[in-house]
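The instructor's notes for this session suggest beginning with a concrete chain rather than abstract definitions. Hand out the sequence below and ask the class to guess, before any prediction is shown, which regions might be ordered.
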Amino acid sequence: MNAGQQHLLDLYRAAQRGEAAPPAPGTHTVRTAREIQQWHRFRAVVTAPADRLPSRIRRAVRSTAATLLRREAGATGRDGAPARVAS
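After discussion, reveal the predicted structure:
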């Protein structure tokens, strides 16, 4: 059963019970996404710097790995074959 069918069943059930109709699927999606983003920003502000250390380490590792991969790609060439040295 997809979301549209479930919504129709919920509408029918609400009508039978004399309740207010539920909101359509996706009605609050943007608001929910904004609230999640706001929560992440809030957590970033209130989290102690010592607790944020793992994210700093993760960024440093990613940066180092990207640098090493770029160097390796430059040394081997784009197709993976060893680069030719001019003689």
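Then share the key points. The mean pLDDT is 81. The CA atoms of residues 69 and 75 lie 10 Å apart.
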